[in-house]
Amino acid sequence: MLEIREAMGKDAKKAVLHNIKEGLGQLEEAFVKCSKGKDFFGGDNIGYVDIVLGCFLGWIRGMEMMLGLNLVYESQTPSLAKWAERFLSEKVVKDVTLEHCVLDFLL
Hints:
Blueprint: H1 3-6, H2 10-35, H3 48-54, H4 57-67, H5 78-89, H6 91-94, H7 99-106
Organism: Solanum pinnatisectum (tansyleaf nightshade)
Pfam families: GST_C (PF00043)
GO molecular function: glutathione transferase activity
């Protein structure tokens, strides 16, 4: 994801952004398949895969703030966007997610 910050020129940034969105599309498909209509990758509760992938949400949100764009949003990745909101709203996660700290680090 840091590639977009280092990409030189408009075309290079567009290419990196395209790759990121393509990857998120694949993650959307994986979520739909794995969750089987449940709230999380493993079912009704947060599991190992949710924790592993959820660790990237702070970075993604920080990049979104830094670049002024949305990467995970309902019109593009609806199931993934809802999963991210559910994951980030869990008390155990909410207390340790510090998007502003990631943004400070990125800048």
